Amino acid sequence: MPRREQKGKAAGGPSLRDIPSVEELLETRLLKTEAARHGRPLVVSSARRVLERLRRDIRAGRPVTRAELQPRRLAAAVRNDAAGIYRPSLKPLINATGVVVHTNLGRSVLADEAIEAVRRTAAAYSNLEYNLDRGKRGLRHDHITRIITELTGAEDALVVNNNAAAVLLALTVFARRKEVLVSRGELIEIGGSFRIPEIMAASTAKLVEVGTTNKTKLSDYEKNIGKSTTMLLHVHSSNYKVVGFTAEVSIAELARLGHERGLLVMDDLGSGALAGLPAFADEPSVKDGLAAGADVITFSGDKLLGGPQAGIVVGSREAVGKMKAHPMARAVRVDKMTLAALQATLALYLNPKEALKRIPTLRMLGEKPASIRARARELAAGLEEALDGAAAVTVEKAASKVGGGALPLLELDSYVCAVSPAALQVDELAARLRQTNPPVIGRIHKDRLLLDVRTILPDQAAPAVAALGQAISQSR
């Protein structure tokens, strides 16, 4: 006889001894079929997981009925649990938050050209590290170097898996056990896991803080240069601003000082804007940094550039060449699909007007308020018809954000559909929308769900309406 649990009982309900064993469940017709389809180990694992959830509920005193313990019902739960392993957990959703480069929601949406480039590259073998002209092994860097140098004016370029890796690689190559001077006002943290002091420690570079949080002068760098100093590092404070009584040293000033003293000058730009959008007016450009004399500049391939996640390094042929040759470069290299997506994205920048229209991140950041208002009205009309009085829907002016740790003070004029459900708490509505297909993520303000149309892609309006209708109909 199968051994049963002997302890534990929820008040007025079944006890642990009433829970069927795994073996009992596996004898049901349904799970015999599932074991034949998916393999016994997966079904056993799911059965154990389902039964353990029941045990926790009973021990915690949560209500459990005897009907829930029927083998047929439990077998169905096991089947659903086993099937879950085949369902992708990474899924597309509708970003109605108004945050264009939303880190938690995958940052930049790729252009159609980049998506097609990934599809072609993933569907067949490629010349990733094979030189077709010479019939010999090649370098994956060669596929992307020319277009980056053409767009930025750099002598050489390298692509790694993200900007944090680019910074870490540069510090490891040029500043191992050596001193690096950084302004105290630039000791940034991005997303809780990228901190300049910790990246320095990981590379074994020795951080030397100069100046103060709000004011750093060229003389602060000059007086802290010592025998072990090897680099002057400028870090763009992309996700915060120090305002008021402030002073900072320009890249041009740092470059002059660094080159006079034989030091490498590096600029961590972070966001990496290449397009000429009005929204980027205060964002430093890669070209300007190189023209000012920086030896190495690092920035992201997603964020403001609008491509796949990647870290891009540009600079002098000598400096970038040393980074390419370092063993760590292999550890942080990108795969063929990232290279394909990045190359296709950058190709759009060769025609800046086309880039602003074809790259979704740039298109969203540059969309005019009048266009957003028109789309918001269309969405509101669809919602009113679908919800049929179950919620009030109004179109209101609001502010979108750039996101991705870029331009923190900038607010973009936008329009939202404000949804006020009649018989449902707004928190519950938001929770239900997270379970629709596709999920819809908005923001809650003053007991209303706000759907910012700036970040709702044109072909997502109808699915958004359907999702809202489904979520609210559950309460009728």
Describe the structure.
The protein has helices spanning 22-26, 29-38, 40-59, 71-83, 112-122, 142-152, 163-175, 196-203, 218-224, 251-260, 286-291, 317-325, 328-331, 336-349, 352-358, 360-366, 369-387, 426-433, 461-473, and strands at residues 94-95, 99-101, 130-131, 136-137, 156-160, 179-183, 189-190, 194-195, 206-210, 229-235, 264-270, 296-300, 311-315, 391-403, 406-421, 440-441, 443-445, 448-452. Strand 14 and strand 15 (406-421) form a beta hairpin. The longest helix has 20 residues, at 40-59. By secondary structure, the chain is an alpha/beta fold.
Notable characteristics:
seven-stranded mixed sheet, Aspartate Aminotransferase, domain 2, 19 helices, globular, single chain, 476 residues, Aspartate Aminotransferase, domain 1, alpha/beta, 18 strands
